[in-house]
Amino acid sequence: MSQIDTLPPLRDVINSHELSARKSLGQNFLLDLNLTAKIARQAGDLSACDVLEIGPGPGGLTRGLLSEGARRVLAIEKDPRCIPALQEIADAYPDRLHIMEGDALEIDPLAHLTPPIRVAANLPYNVGTELLVRWLTPPAWPPYWQSLTLMFQREVAERIVAVPGSKAYGRLAILAQWRAEASIVLHLPPEAFTPPPKVSSAVVHLKALETPKFEAKAATLSRVVAAAFGQRRKMLRASLKGVAPDIEDRLRTAGLKPTERAEQISLEGFCALARAVDAT
To answer: 218-278 — its CATH code?
Structure first.
């Protein structure tokens, strides 16, 4: 395996710092630096961007982002054992890596980033979906980020890009596809990681749109979608009866059949329904 920089191979870094992956932190380390550089390239040209990375661990993707030309990387790491290894990377890339120790769910990174901003991360499995939902549902749109390039369990990745009629189609697909262009750009087998997880992984790239694809109020759309998929086996007239007392009329106004089920409804259909629910 060729090196992407002058730092030691990741396996040596892990051994020297005794960084065994911890299941409690959702850790699975990528050791192939050529692979981490390939993931970094999926984020596009980073030379004019600050990059937010969550859960860098020993720094495999961090080194990929920096070697691929990221202007600056902000790495937020919860595991204090990883900080010395990350500091070695910071020393090798002067003024281009800022390390913050803490929980990404509790840290506001904006004070430490300069636009344009992109997010790239091999997300810890235990917080990945929650972070994604937060990035997709900010108080105002467009968000602070231009794009998200994120590693998930394959099952989660498929839910993000799912189409109507598929078993994976649900709330996550609606949230992602309403305000962003989402695609799976890379598949990774379990053996790419140390230790190997029990599931395959995939990298998803989401590019923020300036405006949502279809008009709707975010809060109403979220409420309608949550209710519909919360009882996805029921017909819409039953699953949505708590949304409005005259829900059947509003479904018809939106061009939807009350007897349809959530997984049959397109993004455009849900947005039409949200507008119908808000209509006086």
So the answer is: 1.10.8.100
